[in-house]
Amino acid sequence: MSTSKDLTSPFKPLREKQALVYCKIFKAVNDKRLLSHRDKEILLGVLAFTTNEGLFKTFDKLSIFELKELAHLSEIALKNLRNWGGRPATTVTTPQRTPAGSRQGSRPQSPLGSNTEIESPSGTRRGRIAELQEMEVEPNIPVAFDNPSNNPLGLCILNVLGLKENLAWIPASSFSRSGVFGKDCVSRQQGFCAITGGPLSNNQQTAYIFPHSSLNPKTSATALTWRFLQIFLGTTNTELLASELWSEEKGVHTTKNGISIFPTLHTFFDKGKISLIPIRLTQGSHDYLDVEIGLYSDDFVVGRIRVFSNQDVEKQFIFEQGKLPRREIQTSGRDIKDGDMIRITTKDSEQYPLPSPVLLYWHRHLWSTLTSTGLSTPQSENRNDDLKDSTLENRTRTQEPEGSSFDDPAHDAGEGSSGGRHYGNDGADERGPYIVDYSNKDIQKILEQEARFFNFLRSISTPEDFEDDYSSE
């Protein structure tokens, strides 16, 4: 007999339960002085998605020094967890040592390692110097220690919250990549892509749900990451996350922490453009997990992914007693849709466990936080976006004829005038396709919306007496 249960995320942001309190704390933090815009962006993103009630209630009481400390800790940890392109974007390592324990050479080693070539997110080989330019690790903050856990960054926040650091969450040894891990995930899925339902035909990659490259026990970044998680998620949720990662001897290299999918989908999953949101778990003669596909990108390629499973999740597999689940494939395929339901099965729940719902929920929660803090893409990607914005601005900038000004009210009043617009030979407005002409009615509507927004800000900024526990009642 099979039993099914609906699933909910354990990582529920506190702002969802205490919206009014969140608005007041948001304003208090946003009004803080002596904080950079970047630090505020990170802090407000952390505030928006924290599940730690202690941090939520204490946020606006933290000193400027403590807020800066939290912002820097959050930035290092979130970049480490981002795992862009299969490796953490910010890598903070301890100096290399010889077998005898002395430091190699007489020159001090960089805390970020030697000048070796590594693979960039775009797949090209670059020197360490080029990579360092994107690391953004503050030089005046100590990041490398003989014992990575000795890094003091963020300890003051733990003290303020009355938390004691749990070093047991940090892995005692490294877990190397294993070819068995990928084979196990493919075997669990019987050779089909977990997302599209299409046959992999040896054209697959196995995506880690929680990146193994973010868990190197020899780096300060790993210790700081778990310190941040305790502050950000609270002790209970951090223990829950750790228990899923270290529940087996293989550590993160179990089918609980992976899905086998096509290479393009692997890229989208690692970049948070696609998430799998657990909805229902069924256990019995056949175990399976129903998940909802979340598309978090307007990328044209993402919307053109072809799926070969029935849109009705109940018709995606045929289950027969004593036989393996049999997938029903639709050979014509269809475009993927946000909100599609897919079913992930296993031929042996003990040998090949289903993906962990906790880790899948964490994947979505992490990328929501990264997006809110402005850390969802590396600096190189942001620079490309800035270039695109500059190009768009040049294309849409109003073009003025020589010797005239659009500030002149008489400019477009002359005979034969075209109302201040300039048209090319094809009749198209040379100012570009992005110019919008608002009517008086449109402008009035915009002004009314702004007035309502300012009234809202005024209402939440009215001084009131609050209890010490920030109770919303």
Produce a short descriptive summary.
The chain is 35% helix and 10% strand. The protein is of the alpha+beta class and 473 residues long.
Polypeptide structure, described:
The chain is of the alpha+beta class and 473 residues long. It has one domain (10-97, 115-374). It has 14 helices and twelve strands. A hairpin with a 5-residue loop joins strand 2 and strand 3 (125-126). It is globular and about 65 Å long. A four-stranded antiparallel β-sheet has the order 1-6-7-12. A two-stranded antiparallel sheet has the order 2-3. InterPro entries: HNH_nuc. Residues 382-400 have a biased composition (Basic and acidic residues). Residues 193-276 form the HNH nuclease domain. Residues 87-125, 373-434 are annotated as: Disordered. Pfam families: HNH_2.
Fraction of residues in helices?
25-40%
Q: Overall mean pLDDT score? A: 75
General form: globular
Low-confidence stretches: 85-146, 398-435, 464-473
Adjacency order of strands in the biggest sheet? 1-6-7-12
- Report the C-alpha radius of gyration, rounded: 26 Å
Which H/E pattern describes the elements? EHHHHEEHHHEHHEHEEHEEEEEHHH
Number of helices: 14
- Residue share in β-strands: 5-15%
Domain tally: 1
| Sheet of most strands | 4 strands, antiparallel
Distance between the termini: 45 Å
Structural class: alpha+beta
Number of strands: 12
What topology does this entry show?
Elements: E1 3-6, H1 19-30, H2 37-49, H3 53-58, H4 64-82, E2 118-119, E3 125-126, H5 128-132, H6 155-161, H7 179-188, E4 205-208, H8 220-233, H9 235-245, E5 258-261, H10 263-270, E6 274-283, E7 288-295, H11 300-303, E8 306-307, E9 317-318, E10 326-327, E11 334-335, E12 341-345, H12 357-373, H13 379-396, H14 440-460
Antiparallel strand pairs: 1-6, 2-3, 4-5, 6-7, 7-12, 8-11, 9-10
